[in-house]
Amino acid sequence: MEIIELKNVDKTIYKEVLDNGLQVIIIPNNETSKKKNYYLNYGTYYGAAINEFVPVDKTKMTSFPKGIAHFLEHKMFESEDLDKPFDFYAKTGSYVNAFTSYKTTCYVVTGNKKLKENLEFLLDFVNRPYFTDENVSKEQGIIGEEVAMNDDNKDYLAFKTLSKNLYKLSPYHTPILGTISSIRQITKEDLYTCYNTFYRPNNMFLVVGGAVNPDEVIKIVTNTLKKYSLNKNNKIKIKEYKEPVEVVKKYEEIKSNVNFDKLALGFKMDKVKFPIKNKVILDLYLNMISSLCFGSSSKFREMIRKRHLASRSGYYFQDIGNIITFIVEADCLNTPVYLKELENYLLNLTIEEEDLERIKKVWISSEVIKTDYADSLVDTVVDDLINYHEVITNYVELIKQMNITTMKQILQSLDFTNKAIVKITSDKKEDNSLQNI
What 3-state DSSP class applies to 434? Predict the structure, then answer.
C-alpha cells in the first residue's frame, strides 16, 4: 500500500491499486480523533458528457441517447436478488445516494457503524446491474417527469437554454438528465453496453475516509470483489470534440410567469490563449478570480446590492476541454443597468497584490482546517479524481506560489467578446414596463 503525505497539512492518506485495476484511496482520521463517522464514495469515470464511444469488445464508434449515464445511475438502485439500497442502509441508520455529473457517476454512503456490511453492500449493488424492459420503461416515465419538473424551475430553464445557445458540438449542450425524447430511446441493451464499458475496475475509484483502518478496508474490498469477474478493460475510446469559440446564439428571451428577470450569460474563451497549461494551476487562478472579483465580499457584489440591481447572482468558470466558459446567473431588479455595469466591470478587471496575498492566506488556512473533517477531505479527493484523475497533494505549495505577475497575465487572457445571453422575463406587459425604472 502506498503512503501519501499531503504536504504542509500533516495528513497521511493511503493508496492501493488492486490487481483488477480499481484505485482505492483511504483517508483515516487522526489517531486521537473520537469521531466515528465514515464516508464512502464509489465512482466511475462515466458521466453525461460521454455519449459517443467504442463499446467494450467492439470496434465501431457508437452514439447513445443523451442522459443515459444519469438513467443508468437510477437503475443501479434496483436488483434482482438484493435489498433495495435505500431500505438496506435505512436499517443501519446510514445514508446512501448517488449523483451524475458531466464527467462521472458516484455512489456515496455515510455511516457510523457496520462499516464492513455497508461497504460490502455498496460494492455489491454497484456490481450487480439488473435491467429489464419493464423496469426501463417505468424509469423512462419517472425521469421524464423529473425533466418536466426541472423545466418548470426558471433557474434551470435559463441555464439549460444558455447551454444550448453556448455549445455547438460539446455534450455540455444537453442537460445531464437528457431530454424527454432522448430518454424514450434508452433500452436495456444500451444500459448493459454502457455499464459493461465504463463500470470496469480500472475505470473506477473508491474513496474511503473517517473512522476506518486502511488494512481492514483493503481486505473488505478485495474479498467482496472476488465474487465478480472483474477484468481490466482496454483504454476506452471516447469521441473528442473541438468546440468552436463562437456561441451558437447570442441572445434569447423567454416570456414566463416571473416577477423579475432571470438572466444567464456565458462567455466562451479559447483555452490555448491562456499562459498556463497546467490544469490544476489554471483552475486555482480562475477560482481566485471568481473569489476576489465576484465573491460575496467583492466590490462588484457590494455595488449591485447597494444599488438594488440584482437580488441574487452567481459567477464561476467552467472547463469543457478546449474551451473555458465564464458563467453568470442573476435575478435582476434592473436588467439594463445590471448588464451595463457587468460589462464595464468585466472590461476593467483588476486584482491588487495585497488582495491576492490576503486571500492566499485564507485558502491556506482552509486547507489546514479541512484535515479535521473527513467528509471534506473525501470530497476534495473525489473532486481531484474527477477533474485530474489523480490526488493533488501539494495544494498549499501551489497556493503559496501564486503571484501577481501570473495573475495579471491570466486577467489579460480573459476574453468576454464571445457571449450568449438568456433572459426569462415577465409575460405581463405591466411587469416588463417596470424593468427600466
Answer: helix
Instruction: Return the CATH fold of 2-225.
Output: Cytochrome Bc1 Complex; Chain A, domain 1 (3.30.830)
State the Cα–Cα distance between residues 177 and 99, nearest whole angstrom: 11
E strand or H helix at 28, and its extent?
strand 23-28
Classify 356 as helix, strand or coil.
helix
* Amino acid (1-letter code) at residue 257: N
Is residue 298 within 8 Å of residue 288, measured between CB atoms? Answer: no
Contact present, 424 and 158 (Cβ < 8 Å): yes
In our burial notation (b when 16+ CB lie closer than 10 A, e otherwise), range 251-290 reads ebeeeeebebbbbbbbbbbebeebebeeeeebbbbbebbb
Return d(Cα 237, Cα 356) in angstroms, integer: 41
Respond yes or no: is residue 73 known to be catalytic: yes
Q: Which CATH number fits domain 251-436: 2.30.110.10, 3.40.50.2000, 3.30.830.10, 1.10.10.410?
A: 3.30.830.10
Q: Residues spanned by CATH 3.30.830.10 within the chain?
A: 2-225, 251-436
* Rounded Cα gap, residues 406 and 277, in angstroms: 12
User: Nearest CA to 257 among 150, 332, 152?
Assistant: 152
Cα–Cα distance, 241 to 170 (Å, whole number)? 6
For residue 342, which amino acid is it?
Answer: L
Which among 16, 31, 73, 397 is annotated as catalytic?
73
β-strands 204-210, 38-44: how paired? antiparallel
Q: Which of 23, 38, 28 is nearest to 89 (CA)?
A: 38
Write the pLDDT tens digit of every residue in 255-301. Answer: 998 989 999 999 999 999 999 999 999 999 999 999 999 998 899 99
Condensed to tens digits (0 to 9), the pLDDT of residues 5-40 reads 999 888 999 999 999 999 999 999 876 566 789 999
Pairing between strand 2-6 and 11-17? Answer: antiparallel
Spatial CB neighbours of 405, under 8 Å, sequence gap ≥ 6: none
DSSP designation for 436: G
**Cβ pair 312, 330 in contact under 8 A:** yes
Give the closest residue to 226 by CA, choosing from 82, 77, 43, 18. 18
